[in-house]
Amino acid sequence: MSRERGSLAQAYAASAPAWAEAPSRIYQVLADALVAGAPVSLAGRHVADLGAGTGTVSRALIGAGARVVAFDLVAEMLAQGGPGRAPGAVADLAALPVTADAVDAAVAGFVLNHLHDPTAAVAEMARVVRSGGPVLASTFAAQPRHRAKVVVEEAAAAFGYIEPPWYTEMKVEVEPRTARADRLAAVATAAGLVDVAVDERAVNVGADTPEVIAAYRLSMAQFAPFVAGLDDQRRQALHAAVIEALGPDVEPIRPVVLFLAAHVP
Ligand SMILES: C[S@@+](CC[C@H](N)C(=O)[O-])C[C@H]1O[C@@H](n2cnc3c(N)ncnc32)[C@H](O)[C@@H]1O
């Protein structure tokens, strides 16, 4: 594992309980939208949830009647979510411990945007899905920095937060590779998928109030390990400072999402 990949995994491991509390609520809305965009019914199908995190996509898939197996690089993320979780295993999306054609479909919610080689990852998804099966994935579309995100970063910096290098690398170098509809479609096509479609739209994730935005942003993997290292008083003071800085008239965060749907030939 590369140094930055190891740091990313460590950050997710350290933030897993916080992620399960707040970002999961936001990502559940996005997971529901991703699964709702499946080009065929997934009811009764064996589906792999890749980069499953705290289980949002698995939950949406189970709701659609699928039989789910979940994989993630980070055991602590797989351990969140309680007794209703799909069975899972630690695995890198770049090299899944699954034979070819093992599942009917594969879904990856907001994972390709973490990967240096998203084409290899999509090819790996295609390898494990039987011929004709669907492959779904989501990434964030490139957008100007949302004011609320800047406010949170500035408030955290005042408490000593320094952006971790893995996160800077992800935002600057890695994420742009799948942050436009044409690029994501090109990745899917280069990976050998057919019937490639990318739907781009803003999603109302309910990040509307300073309290919700503060909890969501400060529990993301780039912040949560720093926040967890603060004593109780400083942690509460940081949350209060973020809420005050956002103010009651904060513009809601509505991420613009790219939803990829394609098939294995
Ligand atoms: C932003 S979270 C998304 C979680 C979930 N799919 C969702 O939409 O709520 C990204 C997840 O991808 C996982 N991840 C990152 N790189 C990975 C890789 N190479 N292989 C498998 N999982 C990976 C992280 O551990 C994390 O759980």
Tell me what the structure shows:
It is a single chain. This protein is globular. The protein has 265 residues and is of the alpha/beta class. It is 44% helix and 16% strand. The protein is built from eleven helices and seven strands. A seven-stranded mixed sheet has the order 3-2-1-4-5-7-6, sandwiched between helices. Helix 2 packs across helix 3, helix 6 crosses helix 9 and helix 6 runs antiparallel to helix 11. The model has no long low-confidence stretch (mean pLDDT 96). The protein has a single domain, classed as Vaccinia Virus protein VP39 (Rossmann fold, 3-Layer(aba) Sandwich). Bound molecules: S-adenosylmethionine (SAM). The site of S-adenosylmethionine has 20 residues, from helix 2 and helix 3.
Which regions are unreliable across 5 or more consecutive residues at pLDDT < 50?
A: none
What's the CATH C level?
A: Alpha Beta
Net shape:
globular
Question: How many domains in all?
Answer: 1
N to C succession of SSEs: HHEHEHEEHEHHHEHHHE
What's the CATH H-level superfamily name? Vaccinia Virus protein VP39
Briefly say what this structure is.
The chain has 265 residues and is an alpha/beta fold. Helices cover 44% and strands 16% of the residues.
Features:
16% strand; alpha/beta; 7 strands; binds S-adenosylmethionine; Rossmann fold; seven-stranded mixed β-sheet
